[in-house]
Amino acid sequence: MTDTSVRIGSHLIGTDNPVYVIGEIGLNHNGDVEIAKRLIDVAADAGAQAVKFQKRTPAISTPEHMKNTPRQTPWGEMTYLEYRYRVEFDRDQYVELGDHATMRGLDWFASPWDVPSVDFLEDLNVCAYKVASASVTDSELLEAMRATGKPVILSTGMSTMDQIDRAAAALDGSPLVMLHATSTYPLPAEEANLRMIGTLRERFAGVPIGYSGHEPGLQISLAAVALGAVAVERHITLDRTMWGSDHAASLEPQGLQHLVRDIRIIEQAMGDGVKRVFPGELAPLKKLRRVEA
């Protein structure tokens, strides 16, 4: 079954195109623009095609029961709401980061966690939107993304099939890419459920299906590509021991380099499924085959 390619930035995402590799910076910048720039460089140097951030209006997107929860941070103890504000970038900072990503040849976009964040990102003219797994059931947010007319990447972690169906319906009319995901950090192999890639491809005919991974290594992401994932998103970090909730499930620079390298090898190795005798087999054939057909 062939999907319909979706254009994001300067790249086409779909079966007949190179796997679209997204370096998910998320909050691994810890509110520091220079760390964020270094992570953009990590993605570019590894050969990824895009970087992704997360954009929140903390007063709206932070659950009420979490707002006053104490949090120990590198900047001292503060409420969870204060922490969320501490790690948000403002418009000027995003302009600086977007320019840096563009200069490094990368697409850049973000997961908005609330409607004002969609407006914020639209003002910056991002090339696409990402629906975080936590936002699959937020119909108001999905409608705001759909209304922009931009491509939307939908992660499917922590969601039932019915919830995914409703989200896809809410995004009807948007150029859509769907990512299989399991939102366990870090992800154990027994929860990866990679056969869902095929299930989603059959259920959402024509929609490019990729994979968003939170496992500590590379094997599961590479298996996803062999199973047909046309995009792979992985969290990236400068150092997995840094402070923050996502670093342990992220790839360090060398890990991302190896991931992209191995994805490109798998792409070459998949072939077209047509049996033929390759030129490299001719010498062994002549040497070893005793009985001709």
TrEMBL record:
Superkingdom assignment: Bacteria
Gene3D superfamilies per record: Aldolase class I
Pfam families from the xrefs? Answer: NeuB
GO MF annotation terms: N-acylneuraminate-9-phosphate synthase activity
Q: Domain PseI/NeuA/B-like spans what residues?
A: 39-275
**Alphabetical GO biological process terms:** carbohydrate biosynthetic process
Tell me what this protein is called. Answer: N-acetylneuraminate synthase
Q: Which organism is it from?
A: Humibacter ginsenosidimutans
> Could you read off the lineage of the organism from its UniProt record?
Bacteria, Bacillati, Actinomycetota, Actinomycetes, Micrococcales
